[in-house]
Specification:
61% strand; seven-stranded mixed beta sheet; mainly beta; 122 residues
């Protein structure tokens, strides 16, 4: 019913930049929030940034370096990542709190993309 597809990952040198995109498609009635999470090897999946309801939040380690933005008309969320560090290396996942037309009278459900790998290395 709903698909989230990430793009924009890759290999970048320390200090470099990448821009991730995530497009939601399908039978979408509404989106309450969209966000980015990441999972490094051997670690849990953690929140990086999230936007919704007029607010935006970042994990402390990316504040001032990463910027999340959203194009509501395109159901797309972006993550601009600057001054990348080796510790930013992870699989980045997009997530959205979404209502479908079929379930519009019920609560929002969390949907996930398949992830895109970001590697920061010289």
């Amino acid at each position: 019913q709903v698909q989230l597809v990430e793009s924009g990952g890759g290999l970048v040198q320390p200090g470099g930049s990448l821009r991730l995109s995530c497009a939601a498609s399908g039978s979408i009635f509404g989106i309450r929030s969209m966000g980015w999470y990441r999972q490094a090897p051997g670690k849990e999946r953690d929140l990086v940034a999230i936007t919704g309801g007029g607010t935006t939040n970042y994990v402390d380690s990316v504040k001032g370096r990463f910027t999340i933005s959203r194009d509501n008309a395109k159901n797309t969320v972006y993550l601009q990542m600057n001054s990348l560090k080796p510790e930013d290396t992870a699989v980045y996942y997009c997530s959205g709190e979404i209502k479908t037309w079929r379930n519009r009278n019920y609560g929002y459900r969390n949907y996930w993309g398949n992830g895109t790998l970001v590697t920061v290395s010289s």
